[in-house]
Write a structure and sequence with these properties.
The protein is mainly β. The protein contains three helices and 46 strands.
């Protein structure tokens, strides 16, 4: 058993250089740490030289921040983001002595996932944040995966001193040698500024490679701590109990249920009152790594009862799956022959002809039709090549296909018109093929070519395709129905703050504002990723059952500038008012109420430029609300980024309220007081700042508009 190690990280270059030197001595990745050591020593020398120059020039001069800090393209102005490098899941959310603590998954050394450690920031209001030094670093071959933190008010752990309760972090340790995941704890007696890892770690070890993300809380009725933690690959949540945070007993399990196509991660469990009633319910939140309603990662929840041992979901919170829909049509290619026929292959990836399922050393392949399919794993993921169709006539408005394999843009199928790519699709890092569809109505009557491309030579560096068909309707894959936290693609790993005072009474949380499909390729620098705005969570009775609702925290109102208000008028009048009052920009809060009598499609465009806009709309014919980012700016950095997300609109009094937050690279939409949410990243051009109302039907009225410019929380 190792002696306890107190982590007091230096937040200066010499300290970071020393950390690199430690890693070299311990046998870490020598080339990477050697480069880091040289980099930090160079910084030290530069800082000393810079200081001498400043002193030599003038005593009245003030050293400037690094050029462009918090003014870079796409830099969020009121969302939390690291100063530099990679960030993902929020961790260790806890309130203590007037500070909201936000720990987060962080790579101290680069802008992609790796070397996972806990970054740290504090805030008095969840809006204005102060960056603190790294809290829990990767150490001794163990990364620090996601987890939670609590204030041990009664010092049940024995970690406190001087009569003050300790903060205790509960996290997943990931051993990079054997890939095992286990639960560990650390403690702090100085408000989270320094941490000591417990000598008895791990506190739970199942010898599992998929056991992670503990969320811990005190359960007063049973006088014990409850841990909610994921058995990710089994799509289960485990509940453990402890009186001291050091020894844990398995109490029960929940799942599989709801959406199970992706791994289960980052669970949360909390009790809330139901609005307007004397009832209470528990919400069990389960985030999934892929297969969410908008594609890729996302979050689902269940409503039910928790007695301190078992969680029992209400029947109306576990939804039935939706079957696939495949319309009849004209088959362009079914790949059932021994060769590709008149399709032309280059390179080695596609082999001499269609594959009979999987190749050697490949995981099982499913979802294709017949006996054969296109499978570019001919030898392994290292081979590359293309497979190109003969020219064909686009005779129907939709092109449907089965697709699987890698999710990266290097493994894709392209539709080409006159040699130009007009549509593209990739798999979802899954060997099971699923139906995809392109709307090609605008190309009817023209000739086109399909090209299946494998340019990747690493993990998931292959593509699977089958059954390409022209049809009069789009195909839809079978979908797992679930209660979704957010219908946009960029809200993941949402977890709530622990120990918010009872006098406050709110359940508060935020989520990672990105998606595992493309998060490592978003066009930002020197940082990658941001968090959503903080939200208050509640429960509301609806016709379908008790549902979770969210609204912006009231603290966001601190950022509001001048208030502008429009009272009832048609679209032309509303747009004239927007223009007159110069309601433009990429730091805006808007509340738009649409008239109950409106027909067709109505909504607003934000971050609008000459050829760009993010479109937020209500389709009255389908009773759906949607966000369209297909023309939002830079959408080509990954094939999975561009798209339209929509959600069924629950019947109210016919009115629809859209509460919209616009920042430099994001749009968040709260529909009908938080019954439906969309969180979308967008990357518009610098001059795309306009706001405009639109309607497909004449004489549509806008009930009201409220608008505020929002100040930066960083500058």
């Amino acid at each position: 058993m190792k002696a306890e190690t107190t982590i007091k990280l230096a937040d200066h270059c010499l300290g970071r250089a020393f950390l690199h030197l430690q890693c070299l001595v311990r046998g870490g990745k020598w080339s990477w740490h050697l480069a880091g050591l040289c980099r930090e020593l160079f910084k030290c020398a530069s800082m000393i030289l810079g200081a001498a120059l400043v002193l030599g020039t003038t005593l009245g001069g003030v050293a400037a921040n690094s050029s462009g800090t918090y003014s870079e393209p796409f830099r969020p102005q009121y969302h939390f983001a690291p100063e530099k490098n990679w960030m993902n899941d929020p961790n260790g959310m806890v309130f203590y002595e007037g500070e909201y603590h936000l720990f987060y998954q962080y790579n101290p050394f680069g802008d992609k996932w790796g070397h996972m450690s806990w970054g740290h920031a504090v805030s008095p209001d969840m809006v204005h944040w102060k960056h603190l030094p790294l809290a829990l670093p990767e150490e001794d071959g163990v990364m620090i995966f996601s987890g939670s933190a609590v204030v041990d008010l009664h010092n049940s752990s024995g970690f406190g001193k001087d009569g003050k309760p300790p903060m205790v972090a509960i996290y997943t340790g990931y051993n990079i040698t054997n890939n095992l995941q286990y639960q560990c704890i650390a403690y702090s007696n100085d408000k989270g500024r320094t941490w000591t890892k417990y000598a008895g770690n791990p506190v739970i070890n199942l010898n599992s490679k998929d056991f992670r993300d503990p969320k811990v809380q005190w359960h007063e009725p049973t006088k014990r701590w409850i841990m909610t933690v994921s058995l990710s690959a089994e799509h289960k949540v485990c509940f453990y109990g402890s009186t001291k945070l050091k020894e844990w007993t398995l109490l029960s399990q929940f799942g599989p249920a709801g959406a199970t196509s992706g791994v289960w991660e980052c669970p949360d469990l909390f009790e809330l009152p139901v609005e307007g009633t004397n009832e209470k319910r528990w919400a069990l939140v389960v985030n999934i790594g892929s297969g969410s309603v908008a594609g890729g990662s996302g979050g689902q929840y269940f409503i039910g009862q928790f007695d301190g041992t078992n969680f029992i979901a209400d029947k109306d919170s576990v939804l039935k799956p939706t079957p696939e829909f495949v319309p009849e049509g004209k088959v362009l290619a079914d790949f059932e022959g021994e060769t590709y026929g008149d399709w032309k292959a280059t390179g080695e990836a596609f082999g001499p002809g269609p594959a009979r399922g999987k190749f050697s050393n490949q995981n099982p392949v499913g979802g294709y039709q017949g006996e054969r399919l296109v499978n570019s794993y001919f030898k392994d993921d290292r081979t590359t090549g293309t497979l190109t169709s003969p020219e064909f006539d686009v005779t129907q408005p939709f092109l449907n296909f089965l697709i699987g394999g890698g999710a990266q843009k290097a493994t894709r199928m392209d539709l080409l018109m006159d040699g130009k790519v007009v549509r593209t699709a990739s798999g979802a890092d899954n060997e099971r093929l699923a139906w995809g569809s392109w709307n090609v109505r605008e190309f009817q009557g023209r000739k086109a070519v399909l090209q299946i491309v494998d340019e990747a030579a690493g993990g998931w560096g292959h593509i699977n395709v089958d059954q390409i068909t022209l049809a009069d309707a789009p195909a839809h894959p079978a979908s797992e129905s679930a209660l979704w936290l957010d219908y946009g693609p960029d809200y993941y790993a949402a977890v709530s703050w622990s120990d918010v005072p009872g006098s406050d009474g709110r359940r508060l949380w935020l989520g990672w504002m990105s998606n595992w499909q493309y998060g490592q390729e978003v066009p930002t620098a020197p940082w990658r990723s941001a968090m959503s705005i903080p939200r208050e969570v509640g429960l509301r009775k609806t016709a379908e059952g008790i549902r979770l609702v969210q609204k912006p925290v009231r603290e966001m109102e601190k950022l509001r500038g001048q208030h502008f208000q429009f009272k009832c008028g048609d679209i032309a009048e509303a747009n004239a008012w927007l223009k007159k009052n110069t309601i433009v920009g990429n730091q805006l809060e808007l509340i738009v109420e649409l008239d109950a009598a409106a027909t067709g499609t109505t909504g607003l465009k934000v971050l609008k430029g000459a050829k760009e806009a993010t479109v937020i709309g209500v389709d009255r014919e389908r009773d759906h609300v949607f966000v369209d980012r297909t023309q939002s700016g830079d959408v080509n950095f990954h094939p999975k980024f561009s798209g339209v997300q929509d959600a069924p609109l629950a019947a109210r009094d016919g009115k629809v309220k859209l509460h919209v937050f616009v920042d430099a690279c994001s749009v968040e939409v709260f529909v009908n007081d938080g019954e439906i949410l969309f969180t979308d990243l967008v990357f518009p051009s610098g001059d795309s700042r306009g706001v405009e109302l639109f309607a497909s039907a004449p004489s549509v009225n806008i009930d009201s508009i409220e608008a505020w410019p929002l100040k930066s929380s960083w500058r």
